[in-house]
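Throughout our pipeline, every protein is held as a single compact record rather than as scattered files. Such a record has a labelled line for the sequence and another for the backbone structure tokens. The remainder of this section carries one protein's record, kept here as part of the documentation:
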Amino acid sequence: MLNFEELKSFLNEKADQYNSPDFIEDDPIQIPHRFNVKQDIEIAGFLAATISWGNRKSIIKSADKMLDIMGNSPYDFVLNYSEKDLDILQDKSIHRTFNGQDFAYFIRQFNKIYKENESLENLFKINDQETNFQHAIERFRSRFLEPEKHRSHKHISSPYKNSSSKRIIMFLRWMVRKDKHGVDFGIWENIDQKYLSIPLDVHTGNISRKLGLVSRTQNDWKTVEELDVAIRKFDENDPAKYDFALFGLGVTKELL
């Protein structure tokens, strides 16, 4: 086992190694990187993050399909779609359990949000006394999702139900984190990256346990918060940079 300073040095080194433009090529973050307009980046990023489970090549292919449907102009499509455009989606397959009905639902909800807000950032503000995005995600869910139960609700996980909310936490890293390496966008100026958590999946979870950063065996919200405590000791101002280290070590199987 490494001592604190050795582990910090190791993780900093790995964060720098994997946080590079090369990372973009094989990752769903390549989808929003195709755009320059803030709202295009947000919509493309949110959709790509929402379907980010399974094989990464498959995720990117499915995200390509959604962009094609939107004419590769997500913000314009969200503001100006016709009901006929959405009717055509109803029977389409998009990605695993995220189908055309879900895609149409998300487009409608985006339309409502952007008619009232310039940016999705407005829906994720952190309140005083909050230490992470748990409550902000729930506030977002209550704004984005209709009160009536709908099959699409399952695609935006709830920390209040102890979900790790991996995909939305990943989206938040993309939008909030200021990154000199050019991977994360950092286009949300009014939210501090110190509140970010690690998107907890099989890779980051397994490596975190192997390095003694967490003791819990489930990948749930309680483990997200346990990992928050550990990684913020290494860098309280930019904790999410360690996602690159943990994910990279997991994908490459370097520690096995």
About this structure: The mean pLDDT is 93. The two ends are 14 Å apart (CA to CA).
